[in-house]
Amino acid sequence: MTGTTSEELLAAQACLRLLHTARAALSDTTTVSPAAAATLLAGPIAEADDALRRAGLAGNEAVLIDRIYDLTPPPRSSEPPTAAGHAPLSRSCAREGGRS
User: Fold this and answer.
1) For residue 80, what pLDDT is reported?
2) Which residue, 18, 51, 78, 82, shows the most beta carbons closer than 10 Å to its own?
3) 71-79 long-range Cβ contacts below 8 angstroms, 24+ apart
4) DSSP assigned state of 84
5) Residue 70 three-state SS
6) Do 21 and 32 contact (CB within 8 A), yes or no?
7) Nearest CA to 15 among 77, 84, 81, 63?
8) For residue 5, what pLDDT is reported?
9) What is the pLDDT of residues 30-87, one digit of tens each?
């Protein structure tokens, strides 16, 4: 996480919490109505917006994505190959949709 400030880290964490909350709230529309989902997401959206502003990342998605990738643990050298023998995506390729 070289070069990541604590404010950037907090913003990345807030965005991940928003993502996980959105997935949970929107995954089953038969049990969670759109109005209920909006209520559930209001807090995490406000938290993420505020954290992004404090970190100076509002409107700077490229830097934000880099900070979110900083939260992932580095790959272990003893990891087995991924499914179908493909190499894991590098950070830059994952953002661009390609493989390394």
Assistant:
1) 57
2) 51
3) 71/1, 71/9, 71/12, 71/13, 71/16
4) G
5) helix
6) no
7) 63
8) 84
9) 888 888 888 999 999 999 999 999 998 888 878 888 877 877 777 777 655 555 544 4
Helix, strand, coil shares of the chain, percent, nearest 5, are: 60, 0, 40
Alpha carbons 61 and 72: distance in angstroms, whole number? 17
What distance in Å separates the CA atoms of residue 45 and residue 89, rounded to the nearest whole number? 29
**Residue 15 structure tokens:** 């965005």
Q: What count of residues does the chain have?
A: 100
CB 40 within 8 A of CB 17: no
Average of pLDDT values for 12-21? 91
